[in-house]
Amino acid sequence: MFVHKPSKLAFVGDVLFRGSIGRTDFPRGNHEQLLNSIRGRLWPLGDDMQFVPGHGQTSTFGWERKTNSFVADLLFDD
Fold first, then answer.
1. Which residues pair with 20 in a beta bridge?
2. What is the pTM of this model?
3. Is the pLDDT of residue 77 over 80?
């Protein structure tokens, strides 16, 4: 991941996509670890942070927190 805070722009590779997340069905993939990384490392950068995934459309962390069925805030109890 590369983050340019002044531009509010993050390049996140295949970790997070608009409406989806990276695959964890490969050897050594870990679904729980991926979710923890997204919520613990990406979300703290702010809802207005725009991200560029490895492929596909850009989005913001705030939009994904509200709408992404894999990592939306309403899915978690904390």
1. 17
2. 0.90
3. no
